[in-house]
Amino acid sequence: MLCDPTMMPRPQELDAEVPVIEAIRAGDPYAFREFVNRHHRWVRGVIFAVLGKRDRLDDVAQQVWAGAWQRIGELREPQAWRPWLYRLARNAAIDAGREASRRRRRTQALAEEPTPPPAATIPDRAASSVEEREAVRRAIAGLPALYREPFVLRHLSGWSYQQIADVLDMPVDSVETRLVRARRLLRESLAGEPG
Fold first, then answer.
1. CA–CA separation, 175 and 181 (whole Å)
2. Which residues, at least 6 apart from 54, have a Cβ–Cβ distance to it below 8 Å?
3. Tens of pLDDT along the chain (195 residues)?
């Protein structure tokens, strides 16, 4: 028996988050809490992709979630929640980056940043692991945003090429190209790291 394509659910109809989004739109705080728990990591990944630093991640993520709760009524199509939330996170991170730049320029004129105290002594093996992670973080943060965003979405948030293309509003081929370039830049950066 042939399958009637008109009877098959479309991909957006299969999105398990649609009923959760509808419950949130109805004002259900428990549904919102569950939604936050499910997607907090990738929202942080989006923020990191834009900022390139971890120091403001929690603050900006809190702003994103507060904004999502307040602005959920603006989401016209519940199945479009992912690009909507991505834009909220990206815009909040851009705003935070601009504010940090303004603050940095103001304080630069006042004084130099104090030298941090020496790190506590830790075993060589643990130090090496921490140093390697920090080298990778620095390398990712050093990527131009053009490459950092798709890289973080793919490798730290686990998004598909198609999801990245949809959210960044570009062809999948462009996503692939940017990821190839990001990986090359990371390899070059890490090869130049002392260690």
1. 10
2. 48, 137
3. 444 444 434 454 568 889 999 999 999 999 999 999 999 998 999 999 888 888 888 899 999 999 999 999 898 888 889 999 999 999 999 888 887 776 666 555 444 444 444 444 444 445 567 788 888 888 888 888 888 888 888 887 788 888 888 888 888 888 888 899 888 888 888 887 654
Left if phi > 0, otherwise alpha if psi is -120 to 50, otherwise beta: which for 8?
A: beta
Return the SS3 of 21.
helix
Tokens, residue 122 = 């830790």
Cα distance between residue 4 and residue 65, in whole Å: 41
Q: Which helix (H) or strand (E) holds 100?
A: helix 81-110
For each of the domains in the chain, give its residue range(s) and CATH number, in order of start. 15-111 (1.10.1740.10), 130-195 (1.10.10.10)
Write down the pTM of the prediction. Answer: 0.57
Residue pointed to by tokens 């999948």: 172
The 10 Å Cβ neighbour count of residue 75 is 18
